[in-house]
Amino acid sequence: MSAAESATAVQRSQVDLLDFIDWSGVECLNQSSSHSLSNALKQGYREDEGLNLESDADEQLLIYIPFTQVIKLHSVVVMGSEEEGPKTVKLFANREHMGFSNVSDFPPSDTAVLSSDNLKGKPVVLKYVKFQNVRSLTIFIEDNQSGSEITKIQKIALYGSTVETTDMKGLKKIEDH
User: Fold this and answer.
1) Distance in angstroms (rounded) separating the CA atoms of residues 142 and 176
2) What is the rounded average pLDDT for all residues in the chain?
3) Angle CA(66)–CA(67)–CA(70) in degrees, nearest 5?
4) Cβ 78 vs Cβ 153: under 8 Å
5) Pairing of strands 61-79, 110-113
6) What global pTM score does this model have?
7) Which residues form a coiled coil (predicted)?
8) Residue 112: closest CA among 82, 88, 137
């Protein structure tokens, strides 16, 4: 799958939400100190195939991403290897302070089981209605493709729009003139 093809899989109105991440609040539980979340999430790092986010004590990762403004989340890209790439990914909208002890107490807003195409960069389109007014996103990586101890994620990208850009009142005013 070429870069052009994966780009067209994300709708034109959807943007990379990287610029709307509140970096001061980003957290990742069970990350390796030498292979941290920045490797997969930050611009420049996530494009480098040699850099990965790796889990530490076991295969699970719990990632918390707050946003600087309210967003609508359309799709996610989670890239990794065929063996150690993530498999079951649970996404939670607006759930603060989750830990491994309570993550299974809450129903996820959506769950994705990543295919080899997803691991190569094909976006996972989410249940859009569940991600309309998102202030924060928690991503729970439950397991990986081979059941190994370490999960490696090469890239995480979030696509959607800011709620401000889809102001219906604003659209109506323009049509009235």
Assistant:
1) 50
2) 90
3) 125
4) yes
5) unpaired
6) 0.86
7) none
8) 88
